[in-house]
């Protein structure tokens, strides 16, 4: 059964723009066939703890010979990894928090990047996630366009591209929406029109992307 993993990491609930957009993508993707299924993992209500030991970053055969990993930590790590490996595609809500990833999404990423398992490590290890689609819905409170004050200060997207794309070999598509704070913070209200325009375009882009996934 084709499966989409929908991963949300916004600290907010109903007001979250990234949640609304990952939902849009999931609904459009489900419409593509009767046997499709979406697995929802909300990192706000069901957070993933950071890996219990640094050794979990490596395939078992690459770990230091004296590395000790408690069975519980190994099992928790395997659950996160298996959830991604079982998915044919993933859509990730990735809000920008203090110029970086949400803490919960960073912990998730620390589990799924495993040299020797999901990423190569100097050999010809298979990359099981290679070519699978990863749609990243990036939401940012202020403007990050070229020449804006915050241009170049998004340190979340480069990490996601590097790990999901370069390391894991996934087919990464980023759909970003800026100026989300204009909907709630009076000081940014003058940017609301541009936010709403971008939101509508992102919604259409995600529906179209879902139809091709
Ligand atoms: C703790 C925190 C830190 C934030 N830091 C930034 C930031 O560095 N840059 C930015 O553009 N917006 C920042 N924002 C605004 C969020 O990126 C914005 O509200 C976004 O829409 C959150 O995603 P969501 O709508 O899916 O919840 C921050 C918000 C919070 C709560």
* CATH C-level label: Alpha Beta
Bound molecules: flavin mononucleotide
Under the CATH scheme, which architecture would be assigned? 3-Layer(aba) Sandwich
Total domain modules: 1
Q: Which fold name fills CATH's third level, the topology?
A: Rossmann fold
* Average pLDDT number: 95
Secondary structure topology:
Layout: E1 3-8, H1 17-30, E2 37-42, H2 71-85, E3 89-95, H3 103-112, E4 133-139, H4 157-167, E5 171-177, H5 192-211
Parallel strand pairs: 1-2, 1-3, 3-4, 4-5
The structure holds flavin mononucleotide.
Characterization of this structure:
The protein is of the alpha/beta class. The protein has a single domain (3-211), classed as 3-Layer(aba) Sandwich (Rossmann fold), CATH 3.40.50.360. It is built from 5 helices and 5 strands. It has a 5-stranded parallel sheet with strand order 2-1-3-4-5, sandwiched between helices. The longest helix is centred in the C-terminal third of the chain and has 20 residues, at 192-211. The chain is globular. The mean pLDDT is 95. Bound molecules: flavin mononucleotide. Flavin mononucleotide (FMN) binds next to helix 1 and strand 3.
Task: Provide a short characterization of the protein structure.
By secondary structure, the chain is of the alpha/beta class. It has helices spanning 17-30, 71-85, 103-112, 157-167, 192-211, and strands at residues 3-8, 37-42, 89-95, 133-139, 171-177.
């Amino acid at each position: 059964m084709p499966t989409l993993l929908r991963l949300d990491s916004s600290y907010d609930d109903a007001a979250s723009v990234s949640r609304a957009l990952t939902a849009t993508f999931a609904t459009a993707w489900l419409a593509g066939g009767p046997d499709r299924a979406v697995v929802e993992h909300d990192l706000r209500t069901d957070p993933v703890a950071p890996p219990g030991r640094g050794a979990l970053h490596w395939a078992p055969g690459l770990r230091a010979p004296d590395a000790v990993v408690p069975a519980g930590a190994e099992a928790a790590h395997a659950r996160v990894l298996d959830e991604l490996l079982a998915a044919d595609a993933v859509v990730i809500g990735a809000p920008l928090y203090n110029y970086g990833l949400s803490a919960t999404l960073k912990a998730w990423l620390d589990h799924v990047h495993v040299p020797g398992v999901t990423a190569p490590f100097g050999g010809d290890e298979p990359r099981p996630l290679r070519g699978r689609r990863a749609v990243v819905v990036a939401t940012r409170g202020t403007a990050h366009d070229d020449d804006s004050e915050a241009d170049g200060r998004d340190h979340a997207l480069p990490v996601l591209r590097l790990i999901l794309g370069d390391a894991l070999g996934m087919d990464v598509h980023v759909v970003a929406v800026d100026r989300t704070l204009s909907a709630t913070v009076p000081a940014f209200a003058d940017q609301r029109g541009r936010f709403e325009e971008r939101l509508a375009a992102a919604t259409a882009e995600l529906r179209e992307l879902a139809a091709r996934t």
